[in-house]
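Need a sequence for this fold. Nothing fancy.
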């Protein structure tokens, strides 16, 4: 009857061989070979005002007036989206900061960068002064997917 030591010898030897082989392959791979095996970049997309409106309808209507057309009601206190969009000095960074580090009673919704840019793009459509600079400059793309921590 084989002992435990003999039964484990073959699998341990195989494991050691595989570990050594993997280490040798990793050390001999050129940067070009590593680049060829890397995952492709994420698909880059333009922010969507329609996507922002849909997301706002889903996440924000409990507290904020979204459309500003008077068709819905909201809590007293949180500003309507139209007011947020037209606040003097409003910027992309201010809106992103409010979404990433919300103040009470606003919940932390853990939004991706794509989602934040969609909402900001929607807010840009609510601006009344069309001569004011855009909240989201043309050509901005939603990448990286998650915002960098501040």
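Here you go.
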């Amino acid at each position: 009857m084989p002992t435990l030591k003999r039964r484990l010898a073959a699998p341990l030897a195989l494991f050691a061989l595989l570990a050594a082989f993997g280490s040798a392959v990793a050390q001999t791979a050129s940067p070009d070979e590593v680049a060829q095996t890397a995952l492709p970049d994420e698909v880059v997309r333009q922010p969507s005002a329609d996507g922002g409106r849909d997301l706002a309808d889903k996440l924000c209507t409990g507290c904020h007036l979204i459309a500003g057309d008077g068709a819905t009601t909201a809590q007293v206190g949180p500003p309507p989206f139209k007011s947020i969009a037209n606040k003097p000095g409003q910027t992309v960074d201010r809106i992103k900061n409010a979404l990433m580090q919300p103040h009470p009673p606003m919940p932390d919704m853990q939004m991706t960068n794509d989602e934040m840019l969609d909402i900001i793009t929607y807010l840009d459509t609510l601006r009344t002064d069309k001569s004011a600079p855009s909240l989201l400059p043309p050509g901005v793309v939603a990448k990286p997917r998650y915002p960098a921590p501040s």
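For context: The chain has six helices and no strands.
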